[in-house]
Design a protein that fits this description.
- The chain is of the alpha+beta class.
- The chain has one domain (about 5-135): Roll (Thiol Ester Dehydrase, Chain A).
- The protein contains three helices and six strands; from the N terminus they run E-H-H-E-E-E-E-E-H.
- Strands 1, 2, 3, 4, 5 and 6 form a six-stranded antiparallel sheet that branches.
């Protein structure tokens, strides 16, 4: 069973485009909000700053499946998909909470970056353990 977390977002007028559905760029904001919720404990602890590291997004692969409209409530599910030696990939799904329709889904990949060398570094055991807290 995959580990994950969910948040809910109500579609507001400022999320809409000229066609009266959620603008494609807003889905990236929905996904980001969900990721911040997932990683909040690790980021808030100062874990990364203490080690002079940053968690940097390097790739987003998103598919738009179904439109969302004003007053819809969407659920954004975030799952840990893959741990590489230097990367973490999460899968995110935006679902219409009322109809169950898949609105959008994305794979988002991050790397740990040493802030001094400005290079990706291997995931540490401590960082991997922090992911268990995030997704547990």
């Amino acid at each position: 069973m995959k580990k994950g977390k969910s948040i809910y977002i109500k579609v507001r007028g400022y999320h809409l485009d000229f066609y009266q559905h959620v603008n494609n760029a807003r889905y990236l904001e929905f996904l980001e909000e969900a990721r911040w919720e997932v990683f909040d404990k690790t980021f808030r602890s100062g874990f990364l700053e203490k080690q002079n590291l940053s968690f940097v997004l390097v790739n987003v692969n998103i598919s738009y499946r179904h439109a969302a409209f004003l007053h819809d409530e969407v659920r954004v599910d975030t799952y840990l998909k893959k741990l590489g030696s230097r990367s973490v990939t999460v899968n995110q799904q935006v679902m219409n909470d009322k109809t169950g329709a898949l609105v959008a889904d994305a794979d988002v990949t991050f790397v740990l970056v040493d802030n001094t060398a400005m290079k990706a570094v291997s995931l540490t055991d401590e960082f991997i353990a922090s992911l268990d807290v995030c997704f547990g």
